[in-house]
Write a structure and sequence with these properties.
215 residues; alpha/beta; BirA Bifunctional Protein, domain 2; three-stranded mixed β-sheet; 10 strands; globular
Amino acid sequence: MPLNSSSILIRHLGLVPFEPTYKAMQQFTNSRKPDTPDELWLLQHPPVYTLGQAGKPEHLLNTGDIPIYFIDRGGQVTYHGPGQLIVYVLINIKRRNWGVKKLVQALEQAVIDFLASQQILANRRETAPGVYVQERKIASLGLRIRRGCSYHGLSFNIDMDLTPFQGINTCGYKNLEVTQLRDLGIRKNFADITKQFLSYLLDALDFKFTNASTV
């Protein structure tokens, strides 16, 4: 495989504000060299709504005091808040000869496989990226590809206040309900869930724990 295409750096950032993290992703991607190792950033954000490039303001219904950011990922509007695992996927897909569709399917598959390990049946929708359990969305995807490299990524509802989702048409769909692991009977520690999910994510992205460094 090409240089560093099988190695990845994993950063556990904790609860971090959205805007500086967003700018850091852009800066990292803009400054990448052909041999820059890929990275995964695992984190949570304080309450925030984000709209992708195609985001329509009419999908903002009752957002209250929660900040709203118009950003450069794909997709419509979503909500981030504490108790939701966010994985920013900073991968050179050109180097590994992956297309966007393959990356999206890999991210979805990681969630589907993890949920299967918890005896939860989940599925994807061809026309609406993400992962669903009983027609309720549990994980959302939004990516941007620049110079063959991805950023933004995946949000996975673990144990959070879902109320702010009622203030938007989630992902641009009216009456789309959301769910989370806690409401599906999985009440494990957030850090433990993150660690377990990471193994499925690395596998789906074709990385190995032996080639993953954590900071």
